[in-house]
Amino acid sequence: MLFPFGSQDTLATITSIGYALFIFINAVQMDLSMVTRTGHKAWTIAVMGLATPLLVCLLLPHYLVKSIDGKANESFPSVVLSHTVTSFAVIASLLNELKILNSELGRLALSSVLVSDILGTTIGCIFNVAKYSNKFIDVIKLGMPLLAFVIFVPLILRPLMFWIIKHTKEERPVDDGYIYAIIVLVFGLGWISVRMNQEFILGAFVLGLAVPEGPPLGSALVKKLQFFGTSVFLPIFVTCGVMKADLSLPKTPTAIFTTGGAIFITHMIKIIAYLIPSLICKIPLKDALALAFILNAKGVVDVGTFSGSYDGKLFRDEAYGVMIVSIIIIACLVKWSVKILYDPSRKYAGYQKRNIMSLKPDAELRLLACIHKQYNISAITDAIDICSPTTEQPIIVDALHLIELVGRTSPIFISHRLQKADSCSHKSYSDDVILALDLYEHENYGAVTTHAYTAISPPALMHEDVCQLALDKVASIVILPFHIRWTVDGGVESDDKNIRSLNCKVLEVSPCTVGILVTRSLLQNNSSIKLAVIYLGGRDDREALCLAKRAIRNPKINLVVYHLTVEQNVPSLEYLLDNEALEELQKLPQCGSENVHYQKVIVNDGPGTSSVLRDIANEHDFFIVGRTHESDLPQIEGLKDWSEYSELGVIGDLLASPDFESRAGVLVVQQQVKDR
């Protein structure tokens, strides 16, 4: 009643616009240069996974399908080819849903599927040329225009796209006239594709590859077309495609079993074909199996492909119904299997100690500093100054500039030390960061060494880049800027929820100590710094104290340790470790360290702690505090209920509270979590 006979085809034709725009958007977000930059590992996996099922399955009908009628046998090659080809858009969407887009496995999957998609599209075009050619002259007539189309569209239109970017003012959006002209081109090239007996979406795909990914043009096109194409028309197109499926049982179910068997055999061979080269490349078995499942995924693009093939009479009704159902089954199995097999955070739970306490007194400190905006740089350098770098105990700073991924699918990670100045188009993203770090290194020559990196990835997955770099560089501490920035008068200037989410995720999975830096005013150079540690006990407080001990090597830093304790403590292992750390500190003034002071403060409840912190909040320029404490400590009783930002812990949250009207910076420290 809702969809009378004939209405489905009309609706499907209209909503095919959404499908074409979806293919175009995903092609725009592809980085075609990855095909040339992809290593032999991705190429081997892609070629093996594409060629093996085609060669094996296309030989099977002669031996396994002799008893089946001719029509069912004719559709067998089309079924195999349709399930062999893997779409970049489907895999990218799956990886994004699983939140492993910029994990090591996700990057390898994206590289492999990009190669596979390009090769699969090429095979599909050749298949169409062969299908409509009875003589060799027909191959020439259809093949030459197709070759010219694929070569000249990027050759002519890509420089035109760069011309548009060049004539777009910096920090200004691309003119809407250019956007609409490109959208018209999408449909114009689609019409030309159909005239060459190819799929309509071929024109959208080729033009999308010609558009430079990322801002300003790529991101503008994605933003303009995302809602209309992907959110409105595409779901209706998929619904129309699925409505064509006849799921009633036929009188002779042979075709169903034949099609189902072909799909099952094809995917089993694909899994083996992806698994073998992955294991040869020394990928762990579980990860290799997860990669094989990912590269077998099916989704929206496959619905469009199967629907078009069905309209072209390549499938019978029963076969089409089975293929539509197979998409649903495969999509569910792949998602569940990958979630079970692959946990990207487990690689961070190493057995190596990576914290400040484990360092020898004269050892260099490796520090990973995260930067979102240019104003973060001064705050980060202040935190490095607090660590008192010297030529005898230097600090190696790996600075990671985090940028939100917009207008592209593939995340980017750039090492600016390895980068050639004349070959990277992305260097401008981090120019200010690199320059500031170079100046800071020059000012602290011999004491500080800086390395700059840029990570362009989705906000939900940025923690992967942070933790992976910390793991690779054997960092002892990661410093993250707090998500709120205050104005001079104490008002909130910016509040970025994505940064807060990133900080919380890094705290959960970081392979080393984490410090969250709250900044409200910058430290004054060439003047003494009043530093304070609030010490209640526990491993995070001991880590904070250890960091403060490094600070007092600078005679301009005056340290006060406030030991908040109850009148009577119950002896325990933690109590003994806390006392040992404090005894070492109390010996420092006797050894000539006059810039260290220790104050023991008796506090029996949470309000008492809050009162003490309020009294000293304006007496110091900088605080270092531990994040977590035992939940039954009397000193913090009741304070957790009033805590607004859990990532700062109870003490850090109080010191960062606007109620205290303090301008002091706060570094909240969480020691490496090894018992995840």
TrEMBL record:
InterPro entries noted in UniProt: Cation/H_exchanger_TM, CHX17_2nd, CPA2_transporter, Na+/solute_symporter_sf
Cation/H+ exchanger transmembrane domain residues: 9-335
Transmembrane residue ranges: 12-30, 42-64, 76-96, 108-130, 142-165, 177-194, 200-218, 225-244, 256-276, 288-307, 319-338
An example molecular function term from Gene Ontology annotations: antiporter activity
Stretches assigned to the Cation/H(+) antiporter central domain: 395-522
Domain of life: Eukaryota
GO cellular component: endomembrane system; membrane
Pfam family, one: Na_H_Exchanger
Keyword entries, A-Z: Ion transport, Membrane, Potassium, Potassium transport, Transmembrane, Transmembrane helix, Transport
Broad class of the protein's primary localization: membrane
Location(s) in or outside the cell: Membrane
Bilayer disposition of the protein: Multi-pass membrane protein
Transport found in the keyword field: yes
Any one of the GO BP annotations: regulation of pH
Family: Belongs to the monovalent cation:proton antiporter 2 (CPA2) transporter (TC 2.A.37) family. CHX (TC 2.A.37.4) subfamily.
Protein name: Uncharacterized protein
Organism: Trifolium subterraneum
